[in-house]
Amino acid sequence: MLAGQHIILGVTGGIAVYKAVELCRLFVKAGAQVRVVMTEAAKQFVTPLTFQTISKQPVYDRLFIGSERFSVEHVGLAQEADLFVIAPATANTLGKIANGIADNLLTTTLMAAKCPILLAPAMNTNMYENPLQQANLKKLAAVGYHFVGPEQGELACGDQGRGRMSEPQAIFTAACQLLLADPFWQGKHVLVTAGPTREAIDPIRFLTNRSSGKMGYAVAEVAALLGADVTLISGPVDLMPPPGVKTIMVTTAQEMYDAVTAHFPAVDVVVKAAAVADYRPLRQCKQKIKKGNELNLVLVQNPDILAELGRQKQQQILVGFAAETDNLRENAEKKLIQKKLDLIVANNVLQEGAGFAADTNIIQIFYRNGEEKQFPKMTKHQVAREVLNAVKELKNNPVS
Predict the structure, then answer these.
(1) Which of 89, 108, 207, 292 lies deepest, with the highest CB count within 10 Å?
(2) CATH 3.40.50.10300: does it fit domain 182-396?
(3) Contact 151, 165 (CB under 8 A)
(4) pLDDT tens, 110-140?
(5) The whole model's pTM is what?
(6) How far apart are CA 352 and CA 344, in angstroms?
(7) In the annotation, is 24 catalytic?
(8) Could you say which DSSP state residue 314 is in?
(9) CATH class of the domain at 6-179
C-alpha cells in the first residue's frame, strides 16, 4: 500500500522503543522506504543495528557528521520525506518541538520538514498530565501536528493511567490515513461484505465454503485508509476487524441479507466480496444426527443478496465478485448483467496465487459496457486498491 512513500521514523529514548521496531517492520512490509533517526537516549534501549536490519537503510543518529547522500543531512532527509513519524515521542522531545528547540539530528530534521508529522506520545501518566506538557500538546495540535494516543493502561513503572504509546498497528493505520487520504472518498459510505456464511444442519454440523474473508477485509481496510466511512458485514472468519471500520458479524445467509438490505439505502458504494452459501437445509435438526447408512439432505435456495441490491439500486455503485473455476469471462459477464452490477471482479480460484485463503489474488474487472481490465498477481490489499480505483473512475466517468 505504501510503495514509493518515504517515511522518516524518529525514535526517542523511552521504553516503548521496542514497539518502534515493529512499526518500522510494518512500514517496510507495506512497501515504504523508511529512514530511522535516533536520539542518543533511544540508543540506550535498542541499538541502531536493529533498525538498520529491519529498514535495510543506514540509521541516522549524529548531527555533526559528513554525509554521502546529502550536502546538509537534516535538510536532505526532511525534503525527501512524505511523512515524519516520531514513536515514541517522549515528554522531553515534545517539549523541544513545541518550543522550537533543535539541538539534535531528530529535532533539527523535524524543524526543516514540510510533510505531515505524526506524533505518538509515550510517558508516565503524571508527566503526561502535567499542565506544561498539556500546553505543549495543544500548541503542537494548533499548528497542524497529528497525534495517535497515548493509551490508557499499565505503564512500565507499574502505574496505571494514560501514557502508554499506542500499539504499532494503530500508529501504522494513522500513518497510512495521512499518506493515502483521498478527497474523493471523504464523506463516502462504503459497505463491504466478507467471508463465508454457515447454514446449520444440526447443532454440530453446517454447510459452508472455503472463503477466508481476506479479500473483503482488505477492501474494508483500504477504503477506510482512503478516508471512507466503512461498514463491514462479515461471516465467521479468523481475522481481526480492520481499525476504524464498523464491523457487523453474522452467521447465515439470511442474517447477512437482513444486515445488508438494512444498510443499503444509506450507502454510496457496495463491494460484495462475501461468499454467501447458495443453499441451506430445508430443516435444521435440533439434536445431533447420529451416524447411519446414509443421510439425505433437502436443500432450498438462500436469498440472493446481490440480485436484491441490483433491484433496489438507485445512485449506488454496486460491485460484485465472481470466484470461478471455468468459463471466467462468460460466467462473470452473465452475473454482471443479471444482477445489475456496475462492475464485477472475477478470479479463477484454481489458478495458483488466486485461491481461497491466499494472501494474493489474480483478478479481471469487467464493466457493463464490455470493457475489461486484467491484472497480474498482487497482494489482496493491492487488489483492494485497484477495485476502489475502478469505483472512483466509474463514479467520475459513468458508463451506460
Answers:
(1) 89
(2) yes
(3) yes
(4) 988 889 999 999 988 888 889 999 999 999 9
(5) 0.82
(6) 21
(7) no
(8) S
(9) alpha beta
